[in-house]
Design goal:
The structure holds two protein chains of two kinds. Chain A is an alpha/beta fold. Helix content of chain A is 38%, strand content 18%. In chain A, the strands form six sheets. In chain A, strands 14-15-16-13-12-18-19 form a seven-stranded mixed beta sheet, with helices on both faces. The longest helix of chain A has 22 residues, at 122-143. Chain A is globular and about 65 Å long. Chain A starts with 29 loop residues before the first strand and ends with a strand. The relative contact order of chain A is 0.14. Chain B is an alpha/beta fold. Chain B has a single domain (12-267), classed as Aldehyde Dehydrogenase, Chain A, domain 1, CATH 3.40.605. Chain B contains nine helices and twelve strands. Chain B has helices at residues 39-58, 61-77, 86-100, 106-110, 143-154, 169-179, 195-204, 218-229, 251-257; strands at 12-14, 17-19, 26-29, 32-35, 112-114, 120-128, 131-135, 158-162, 188-191, 210-213, 234-237, 259-267. The longest helix of chain B is centred in the N-terminal third of the chain and has 20 residues, at 39-58. The chains are: A alpha/beta, B alpha/beta.
Chain lengths: 488, 270
């Protein structure tokens, strides 16, 4: 079906390589923990390499925090918190404005390091991750002296010390989502970056130093899942904010059972991207590609369940496959690259397991043919058709560049299928009919619904899930609420 | 002339029907028999609630406000028949009235337009989280129950509530008041029985979205937290032994807890 709809010639207009220079990047060989406003060796002396997933080469050594380091960070954050909260609100805001400005000023460096450490295309780290991280600090800086307007005129107080655990898919951006509102509300924060992507958080620590942020307001403790688990389980902090998998979120929620520690969770998804027959199909195809192949599909709200109205199924799949075949997979530093490296060997294996399950369960797999580098972790964009709603690839989050296609006949069936998921993070709707878009958007159980676009984010717009995609919101005034307690 | 009284047998209120426990078990209070609900009754109630959830949320905010107002009327008119002091009934009616007025204001208070830096009309609006499980406090048996279920209803959720274990009859009286009001079947489900047994069945149910726990039992609360984690339920614990004299002071916090904020992006221009 795909080849018969391909009426274009087979001439391939190739691109010359256009690599972003990494010459201006001055990374240290080693990064300590960021504690008390300084980089320090971990108590047990443990350093681990962080590697570039596109080359498998180590970039730098990074300290991993142990139990004693976590305790030291809590002490430091606890000591700093009353002073931080007692600052005049606008003075507290100024520190956040400074951080926002410094992120902008170092944006090129941050973008390159984000791409080196995580494997995402430079085009994305440059145009999405870093600008949005700066925007997030700007937005919440402005809230610091307007908190009561953001919480419906209630009197609020900071929670105290918050522990924040962020994932590897948007390392700096997720750190910004966590730190900016926490600090604006007068809390101090202990951030644990992801095991595979600690570097931009450590550069953010340098930025905090440059901004003269008081010691202890931010601590950065790299490490693995055990570090995160230890942070969650030490009982002297007031709140945990976690972004990551539903499995780990469940574990955290259970670990905090019966405690006074507050919790917000931003977890996994299996978001439906719904294409109606009246959509502008070429535009929809671009949106489908952006929905699932953006950041190699390492996106919690990725449009990984594509629901296409039966009447346009063949046409959409034909166009989509043509578009997919032109995706450029490879060097993340190349400015023309669409799909970069898979973040880690572990994640690559997870994708491969689920894709194999898709084939075993009888779905039809198509994977684009493309040259891929000899080293590094790669997975070519993949399309599954003939997917049944019960297949693992229709139910489980793959977190990779793999889209599963289902069909529907009526609007009611589309809504029913879209909502038939334990998750409820996001959804897309492709239609040019306004009344229909509003009706469907209202019926979808998802925290974010995009019409005729996908994967659009903004610091003013609340983001977060229904059902097993978590609870609590980030962005906008709703993003303040998890970081304050109501006094009256 | 002496007359033999007609004794009343209380029933559970599930899916709009007054039913005995499927288990056939019952207990006795103040000379009345009332059902001791089972875990199966809890599951039946969640199924009935889920069925009622969509249509309830689809009603207009104005209509839901009217229905809650009518519920307040129904409660007030039966004030003398409910086995609690009159001022508790009065306070309960006032709480219902307070929340009846919330249904069409929540959007303005919690929602708004997001001034995004792109050509989209983006807005965030509160929506019901879905089916809310309520563990009512032992006391005050009527006011405590109303204070826990009314915010959930006002935010367009449906409710399965475990009544006061110590004093269940006022909650079952409430069922009869609501049963003759306009509250659609399944929107409120009220079960009497052993709190720990029923609350755990609620906490473990995979099709429940949130738990408002006012049972005041720390051990049970911790167990509910653990059970809730399995499907990432939202949980709010009420302070133990509160008087509920300030039952609406924290209304917005209660409403927030059973509300999901949905952000929609609609294109402008293109």
């Amino acid at each position: 079906m795909s080849s018969s709809t391909d009426t274009r010639t087979s001439i391939v207009w190739d691109y010359a390589p256009a690599p972003e220079s990494a010459d201006h990047i001055r990374l240290s060989d080693r990064y300590g923990l960021f504690l008390d406003g300084e980089f320090k060796d971990p108590q047990d002396g443990r350093y681990e390499p962080t590697i570039n997933p596109a080359t498998e080469q180590p970039i730098a050594e990074v300290a991993w925090a142990g139990r004693q380091d976590i305790e030291a960070a809590v002490r430091s954050a606890r000591e700093a918190q009353p002073k931080w909260a007692a600052l005049k609100d606008l003075e507290r805001a100024k520190y956040l404005f400074r951080i926002a400005r410094l992120i902008q000023e170092r944006s090129r460096e941050l973008a390159v390091v984000e791409t080196l450490d995580g494997g995402k295309p430079l085009r994305e780290s440059r145009d999405v991750d870093i600008p949005l991280a700066a925007a997030h600090f700007f937005h919440y800086a402005g809230w610091a002296d307007k908190l009561r307007y953001g919480v419906n005129a209630r009197e609020v107080a900071p929670l105290g010390v918050v522990g924040q655990i962020v994932p590897w898919n948007f390392p700096l951006l997720m750190a910004a989502w966590k730190l900016a509102p926490a600090l604006a509300c007068g809390n101090t924060a202990i951030l644990k970056p992801a095991e595979t992507t600690p570097l931009t958080a450590l550069l953010l620590a340098e930025i905090a130093q440059e901004a003269e942020l008081p010691p202890g307001v931010i601590s950065i403790l790299p490490g693995n899942g055990e570090t995160g688990a230890a942070l969650v389980r030490q009982k002297k902090i007031n709140k945990i904010a976690f972004t990551g998998s539903t499995a780990v979120g469940r574990d955290i929620q259970a670990a905090l059972a019966g405690s006074e520690v507050r919790l917000t969770l931003e977890l996994g998804g299996k978001s439906a991207n719904i294409v109606f027959e009246d959509a502008a199909l070429d535009q929809a195809v671009e949106g489908i590609v952006n929905g699932i192949f953006f950041n190699q599909g390492h996106v919690c709200c990725a449009g990984s369940r594509l629901l296409i109205q039966e009447s346009v199924h063949d046409e959409v799949i034909g166009k989509l496959w043509q578009r997919m075949r032109r995706l450029r997979v490879g060097d993340p530093l190349d400015k023309n690259t669409d799909v970069g490296a898979i973040n880690s060997a572990e994640q690559l294996e997870r994708i491969e397991v689920l894709v194999a399950a898709g084939e075993e369960e009888g779905a039809t797999r198509r994977t684009i043919e493309c040259e891929m580098p000899d080293r590094g972790y790669w997975f070519a964009p993949t399309l599954f058709t003939d997917v049944s709603p019960a297949h693992r690839i229709a139910v489980e989050e793959i977190f990779g560049p793999v889209v599963s296609v289902l069909t529907f006949r009526t609007q009611a069936e589309a809504i029913e299928k879209a909502n038939n998921s334990r998750y409820g993070l996001a959804a897309g709707i492709w239609t040019d009919k306004g009344a229909k878009a509003f009706e469907v958007a209202s019926a979808l159980q998802a925290g974010v619904v995009w019409q005729n676009t996908y994967n659009h984010f903004d610091p003013t717009a609340a983001f977060g899930g229904y059902k097993e995609s978590g609870f609590g919101r980030e962005g906008g005034p709703a993003g303040l609420r998890p970081y304050v307690r109501i006094v009256s | 002339m002496s007359r033999l009284a007609v004794r009343k047998t209380y029933k559970l209120w599930i899916g709009g029907a007054f039913v005995r426990s499927e288990s056939g078990r019952y207990d006795e209070a103040d000379g009345f028999n009332f059902p001791r609900a089972s875990r199966k009754d809890v599951r039946d109630a969640v199924v009935a609630a889920r069925k009622a959830a969509g249509p309830w949320a689809a009603r207009t905010a104005y209509n839901r406000g009217q229905i809650l107002y009518r519920a307040a009327e129904a409660l007030e008119s039966r004030a003398e028949t409910i086995g609690v002091p009159r001022d508790e009934v009065d306070a309960s009616v006032d709480v219902l009235l307070h929340y009846a007025g919330w249904t069409d204001k929540l959007h303005a208070v919690l929602g708004g337009i997001n001034p995004v830096a792109a050509p989209f009309l983006s807005f965030s609006l509160p929506e019901p989280t879905g089916v809310v499980g309520v563990v009512a406090p032992d006391a005050p048996p009527l006011l405590g129950l109303i204070a826990e279920i009314a915010p959930a209803l006002a935010a367009a959720n449906v409710v399965v509530a475990i009544l006061s274990e110590a004093t269940p009859l006022p909650g079952l009286d409430l069922a009869e008041a609501l049963g003759v009001s306009d509250v659609p079947g399944g929107v409120v489900n009220l079960l009497s029985g052993r709190r720990a047994e029923l609350a755990k069945a609620l906490g473990a149910h995979r099709d429940l979205n949130a738990i408002a726990d006012a049972g005041g039992d720390p051990e049970l609360s911790a167990e509910l937290d653990r059970l809730a984690a399995e499907t990432i339920k939202r949980v709010r614990h009420g302070a133990a032994a509160r008087s509920y004299s300030d039952a609406t002071d924290d209304a917005l916090e209660r409403l927030e807890m059973v509300t999901e904020l949905k952000t929609a992006w609609h294109p402008v221009g293109a």
